[in-house]
Batch of 2 targets.
Target 1
Amino acid sequence: QVQLVESGGGLVQAGGSLRLSCAASGRSFSSYAMGWFRQAPGKEREFVAVISRTGGSTDYAVPVKGRFTISRDNAKNTVFLQMNTLNAEDTAVYYCAATPRGGRNTIVVDPTQYNFWGQGTQVTVSS
């Protein structure tokens, strides 16, 4: 079991940056692949970025590739999402999630494969 708490969301102007954090409590954070997902009003939850247990493998959704960076600090039980050059289309509630599936360098893109979710943090980008 792992509990996840996101922070770092807020209101930012287009072109600005935000850094989201997700603090995990519970057992063996390094045993979980982690992911960031987002849900905009009226839309389904979508994949943003994922990272393997070791941090050695990552993947990004096409709309955020080159602008967002996912990272993790297993010593601090935290995963981060650095978001740069934000635009209005990035406005959404951002969720972090954890899954025990896969190996040390496996990334998991499918949100249905994630067992644990945070409560979400709102990101609003004004144009």
Target 2
Amino acid sequence: QVQLVESGGGLVQPGGSLRLSCAASGFTFSNYAMSWYRQAPGKERELVAAISSYGGSTNYANSVKGRFTISRDNAKNTVYLQMNSLKPEDTAVYYCRAALFTIYWGQGTQVTVSS
């Protein structure tokens, strides 16, 4: 069955870094565009970063440009989100999403940025 399993979340101080991973199984990962979304309490889910199926194209929310980097390793069926210079407003549950003709979501991983 299809699975997207996020990991790497946690508590970090402002200015710190985290690297999220999303391990995929049950579908042909290299065919799918991958993205990271986040949802803060009381807010709608929003796109953070996206990467094309073979990694040639990326795009980012304005709020994270220059701080976050999305990448993928198709040999490992994994997509990553490197998050640097974290701010308290980055606190949210981060979700991995796969999209082609069907959309799959992971269960989410909590990121908390606080001193």
